């Protein structure tokens, strides 16, 4: 448990303010993990140990600053934050359990463009080792797939990528076999310094094209947050109120809105327009019949709408206040909604 000072020495507002400031220091990556359901965090079994040795264990400096602000005689130890650090690290996916590689021995390790000053040789070697283990899982073995990023502690550096270069001396696979003929590694890892930087950097077209409910919802939420200039203020609201209907992904795939970048850009814009209630002139009722006096189609409290993607295609969706369910994409003369 975290050691807490006696609140009797502070007013309620002072005490609350100090800890709210402390919690805000811890919230950035937690917000990303909580809100972005399609984001995965990866680690290796030695990460916690390396961070400990580097005096960079998660939250250590934030917690130390918080306790220093509270009272001078606080006995702060690294173990006090194990609950917080473990919650972050242990929810990550283990590289050793996800691929065929159990251990990697590297040498001649060089990082170019590293924003972390005075990184120790051990930390550099570990990052190179993790890169070698991750490349076959998160890439093609030579380079990483789009939207694979490296998390770094905050820095004022403008660097947006780290080049990793090392020699691979030995690979131990999970079946206990060895590989000593591995080629050297030279690859680049995009870097994000905080969650806002990450959300502002990701390629949302590629994110959408993953074709899962979570990737589509995340893409919509991030795009809406970007356009509102406050990503996480609107992110949780979008994730709460936006839903994917059972036929939306299938119909999007049928008409090319899962693999054509131009079409994905258009449908993403339309979804954000609907979420943010913009360009409402492009939205129209879907009626029970063809007559102008027919009632709007309904499903419980939800009402049926049609929004123009372009002249050829339209998005049909259900709406009740802020709640939106993306139903299906249809061609021009199709008035059906699922």
Summarize the structure.
The chain is of the alpha+beta class. The chain is 40% helix and 22% strand.
Question: Helices and strands in order, then pairings?
Answer:
Blueprint: H1 12-35, E1 42-43, H2 47-53, H3 60-70, H4 82-89, E2 93-94, H5 95-98, E3 101-112, H6 121-138, E4 150-151, E5 161-173, E6 178-179, E7 185-192, H7 195-201, H8 204-208, H9 213-228, H10 231-241, E8 242-244, H11 248-254, H12 261-276, E9 283-285, E10 298-299, E11 302-308, E12 313-320, E13 323-331
Parallel strand pairs: 1-2, 4-7, 8-13
Antiparallel strand pairs: 3-5, 5-6, 5-7, 9-11, 10-11, 11-12, 12-13
Question: What does this protein look like?
Answer:
With 338 residues, this protein is α+β, with helices and mostly antiparallel strands. It is elongated, with a radius of gyration of 25 Å. It has three domains: 1-93, no CATH class; 99-196, no CATH class; 203-331, YaeB-like fold. The chain contains twelve helices and 13 strands. The N and C termini lie far apart (50 Å). Strands 8, 9, 10, 11, 12 and 13 form a six-stranded mixed β-sheet that branches. Strands 3, 4, 5, 6 and 7 form a five-stranded mixed β-sheet that branches. The protein has a two-stranded parallel sheet with strand order 1-2. The longest helix has 24 residues, at 12-35. 40% of the residues lie in helices and 22% in strands. The chain has helices spanning 12-35, 47-53, 60-70, 82-89, 95-98, 121-138, 195-201, 204-208, 213-228, 231-241, 248-254, 261-276; strands at residues 42-43, 93-94, 101-112, 150-151, 161-173, 178-179, 185-192, 242-244, 283-285, 298-299, 302-308, 313-320, 323-331. α1 (12-35) runs antiparallel to α3, α9 runs antiparallel to α10 and α9 (213-228) packs across α12 (261-276).
